[in-house]
Structures are given as structure tokens and as C-alpha cells.
Design goal:
The protein starts with a strand and ends in a 12-residue tail after the last helix. Strand 5 and strand 6 form a beta hairpin. By secondary structure, the chain is α+β, with helices and mostly antiparallel strands. It has two domains: 79 residues, PH-domain like; 65 residues.
Length: 163
Amino acid sequence: MVIESTISRKEFLRHALSRHFRRPGFYLYAFVAATLTAYGFFAPNAPTILYLAAWLPLLVYGAVGWIIITRRSRDTSLPIYLPTRYELDKRGVEMSSRQGRTTFAWDEFRNWRKAEGVYELTLRSGQLLIISQRALSPRQAAALEDLLKKQITPRPEPGVFDT
């Protein structure tokens, strides 16, 4: 199967923001904010500054991430914006663009998912291959999903103590 794909700025922005808000740091800040807010509601003498301490880190995390991702998405020289050709077969994925050609065997992939208008293929190294859903016809999309289900066995994210 051959796929010619180009990621748009909008797709990049949606995907990057989604990843930013799925990181463990976001959940940590949200948990701290929720815990301190709950404590503030139920403790009769809780200081008002507690609410600022609860929500400020979470708001800063979200705002700074949004600003950085938005600025980065304006850089049209990013490799993600180059037209890319993906050749998928029983051996793996060959990715080629003006910057070069790379081949990945299926056992190098950790997982795949379909979200925010793209197919995200995650390598064991953490690198992502992003294929726009716009580049596929419905029949091609179904064939791609079947191929990915057959070839990529989902593996858990590496933990803190994994090497």
C-alpha cells in the first residue's frame, strides 16, 4: 500500500495540543489542583491563596504549552509539513520525502492510533509517524487499519525503570 501524505498546520496543531494534554505532567497538575481545591472547600479556615496555588501551575502548563505549540506550528520548514510517501508492506514501512528515505520493520513499532484527523504510528524509540486521514479514501483507510491491526501488536509505554 502506498500513501502520499502531507500534514496541514491545523492537523499538526490539533495533534500536538492533544499530545501536550495527554502527558503525565498535565495529569499531575490537574490532580494537585483538584486535591487542593477540594481541601479548600472542606477546610473551614483554608487560606484564599490556596486556590491560586492549586490552579496557577495547571494554567501555566496549559498556556505555555499552547503558546509554544502554536509558535512551532508556524515554522513551515518543519519536516512534518513536507510531502511524504509511505510504502507499507509485510516487511514494514518505508518513509520517503525530500529529506531522505527511512525503513522501519514492523517490530520497531510500539503502537498505533487514529485521532485528531491523523494516524499516529509510535515507534519503540518514541518517534512518531503521522499520516493524514485526508490522504486516504475510505477503502484505503479500512485497508490501512486492517494492516496496522495485523502487523502492530500494542505494547505498553516504557515505564520509569525500563531501559
